[in-house]
UniProtKB/TrEMBL annotation, chain A:
Known EC number: 2.1.1.13
Claim: Methyltransferase is one of the keywords in the record: yes
Taxonomy, superkingdom: Bacteria
Stretches assigned to coiled coil: none
EC class of the enzyme, as a word: transferase
Residue ranges of domain B12-binding N-terminal in the record: 9-103
GO annotations of cellular component type: cytosol
BP GO annotations: homocysteine metabolic process; methylation; tetrahydrofolate metabolic process
Protein name: 5-methyltetrahydrofolate--homocysteine methyltransferase
UniProtKB/TrEMBL annotation, chain B:
InterPro entries, A to Z: DUF1638 (IPR012437)
Stretches assigned to the DUF1638 domain: 49-205
Top-level division of the source organism's lineage: Bacteria
Protein's recorded name: Uncharacterized protein DUF1638
Organism: Limimaricola soesokkakensis
Record-linked Pfam families: DUF1638
Length: 235, 208
């Protein structure tokens, strides 16, 4: 796709064409083009939240779907994510100043013994794109690290990620500790990572296993709205 | 005759049809298993390797082993899977138990080359391991599948949290050591070589 667009001048495209081009450029992992197009939309008076959701998240959703369907592979997804991050770097300071919707707050990190953070970073980015506030604890987190951050940040959601079959059982250690401390039901617990599955998520007592970043976003939205409904019913 | 690495990577190795015990193994272990069979005179063992590239798709290992048992197991007294868990999350152990065949203990070959207990005790979470086979087949297993041949800028995203490439040497080969060191340089990692020999693999095959 990139070759035929070599002479394309992004600023000459109308809004609809430009967003469509951004979808293509995200798909091709073209960070510079995404940053340029993001700035063009802002200069045309687009709200940062609209640029984020309609252009960047919209484009990444296509990438995510094609990854799920085996059309794209990890390197292409990473390039697309890197391009999206370029756009996000422009939008993030502006989003903080505007009244973009706030969906909830999520503490996220890879579990103790696991340094593989590609999936966790993708989830964090897509959750941010969906209006969640993210507290990223990074890699190799012990139970104390998660629990301290949940309390400090008054978070709604705990997200745990693992790539290794040797480290994923640690998620149960965290959830069991939450139960012991009587705080398990204070949080929505989402888990993910290549070797996990729904059965594992259920077995360790998580609220949901999320197959990919897009599913994580939808699952988080769903659980947050359920919580709101429960709170309203109980009020 | 030594099977060549490219064939072991993509196709595996057919059994010879001789021997009472069929070993169904990862292609990455073929040379080492053949060396141990030769060294110990284990003529009762017949080696059948599955493509080593399954290493990159652990979800396919247990079904592939089961299919191999069904296709090749008849006519042998017993079958033994020369795989550790290998990222299957217990799937392979459950499959082997259901099929009534043995397998190697431990999480993966890095652990049994080092010795499963010693490996666990070290807890080296920021180390990236290569064996003799993976040093030779680095491009096929690491560099190309991760897209680093096309997009070297992804290196930091994949390996930014690693510190050291540990080369677990099964054989004492200066050329392989130099190659392993070059891989570490390409990944931007420190380098350490450990001559493990065959570790727990020999013990596992002795009880196969």
């Amino acid at each position: 796709m990139a070759d035929e667009d070599d002479d394309l001048i992004l600023s000459e495209l109308d809004d609809e064409e430009l967003v469509a081009q951004m979808f293509d450029d995200l798909y091709d992992g073209l960070r510079d083009e995404i940053m340029e197009a993001t700035q063009i939309l802002l200069d045309r008076g687009w709200q940062p939240y609209d640029v984020l959701t309609k252009a960047l998240v919209g484009g990444m959703t296509i990438v995510g779907n094609d990854f799920r369907d085996g059309i794209l592979f990890v390197p292409e997804v990473l390039l697309a994510a890197n391009a999206m991050k370029g756009g996000m770097s422009i939008l993030k300071p502006l989003l903080a100043e505007t009244d973009a919707p706030r969906m909830g707050k999520m503490v996220i990190g890879t579990v103790k013994g696991d340094i593989h953070d590609i999936g966790k970073n993708l989830v964090a980015m897509m959750m941010e794109g969906a209006g969640f506030e993210i507290v990223d604890l990074g890699i190799n987190n012990a139970v104390e690290s998660y629990l301290e951050a949940l309390a400090r940040e008054k978070a709604d959601i705990l997200g745990m990620s693992a790539l290794l079959t040797t480290t994923m059982p640690y998620m149960k250690v965290v959830i069991d500790t939450m139960k012991e401390q009587g705080i398990r039901d204070d949080y929505i617990v989402l888990v993910g990572g290549a070797p996990l599955n729904e059965e594992f998520g259920r077995a360790i007592g998580a609220d949901a296993y999320c197959r990919d970043a897009a599913v994580a976003v939808e699952t988080a939205k769903d659980w947050i709205s359920r919580r709101h409904n429960q709170m309203q019913a109980g009020a | 005759m030594q099977p060549d690495d490219a064939t072991l990577t993509r196709d595996g190795l057919a059994p010879s049809g001789r021997g009472r015990v069929l070993l169904i193994a990862c292609g990455a272990l073929a040379r080492e298993i053949l060396a141990l069979i030769g060294r110990n005179g284990w003529d009762h063992l017949d080696l059948h390797c599955l493509p080593a590239l399954l290493h990159n798709r652990p979800d396919r290992i247990a079904p592939a082993v089961e299919a191999a048992v069904a296709a090749r197991g008849a006519g042998y007294e017993r079958v033994f899977a020369v795989y550790a868990d290998c990222g299957t999350g217990g799937d392979l152990a459950r499959t082997c138990e259901r099929l009534g065949i043995g397998m190697v203990e431990g999480p993966h070959c890095y652990a049994f080359y080092d010795g499963v207990e010693a490996f666990a005790e070290k807890g080296e979470v920021t180390c990236f391991y290569l064996t003799d086979f993976l040093v030779r087949q680095f491009d096929a297993f690491v560099w190309t599948p991760l897209g680093l041949d096309r997009h070297s800028e992804l290196r930091e995203m994949y390996f930014g949290n690693y510190t050291t490439l540990v080369y677990q040497a099964q054989t004492d080969d200066p050329a392989l050591t130099a190659l392993a060191r070059a891989h570490a340089d390409r990944l931007g990692l420190g380098f350490e070589r450990r001559l493990t020999g065959y570790g727990d693999l020999e013990r596992a095959l002795a009880r196969a």
